[in-house]
């Protein structure tokens, strides 16, 4: 059996986009918020790909970029800052 990865990915994206529309009709806005500390090229690419996937299926996304020199306290403060995520129903923080 040969699996067509591109076709499967397209199917998953189509199903996800439909689920996002259903949620939006109920007033729920799915979203992804990412926080990147530093300028690691691999992490930057990973985050770009996640935000691109969100865009394709209608999920709102936001990225917060912080310098590598930021303290843990500054990072936690920024993550907990509600103003940054007002357009997201339930912010999802994914750190890379």
- How does the major sheet shape up? 3 strands, parallel
CATH superfamily: Leucine Dehydrogenase, chain A, domain 1
Quaternary state reads single chain
Class by alpha and beta content: alpha/beta
Tell me the name of the CATH class.
Answer: Alpha Beta
Q: Unreliable runs, pLDDT <50, ≥5 residues?
A: none
What's the alpha carbon Rg, rounded to whole Å?
A: 16 Å
What gap, in angstroms, lies between the N and C termini? 35 Å
Number of strands: 3
Order of helices and strands: HEHEHE
CATH topology: Rossmann fold
How many separate structural domains? Answer: 1
Specify the number of helices: 3
Question: Could you characterize what this model shows?
Answer:
By secondary structure, this protein is α/β, with parallel strands linked by helices. Helices cover 49% and strands 18% of the residues. It has a three-stranded parallel beta sheet with strand order 2-1-3, sandwiched between helices. The longest helix has 21 residues, at 5-25. The radius of gyration is 16 Å and the shape is flat. The N and C termini lie far apart (35 Å). The model has no long low-confidence stretch (mean pLDDT 86).
């Amino acid at each position: 059996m040969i699996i067509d990865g591109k076709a499967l990915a397209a199917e998953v994206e189509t199903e996800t986009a439909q689920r996002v529309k259903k949620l939006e009709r109920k007033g729920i806005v799915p979203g992804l918020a990412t926080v990147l500390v530093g300028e690691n090229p691999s992490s930057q690419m990973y985050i770009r790909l996640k935000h691109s996937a969100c865009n394709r299926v209608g999920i709102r996304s936001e990225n917060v970029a912080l310098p590598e020199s930021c303290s843990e306290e500054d990072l936690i403060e920024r993550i907990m800052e509600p103003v940054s995520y007002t357009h997201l129903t339930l912010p999802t923080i994914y750190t890379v």
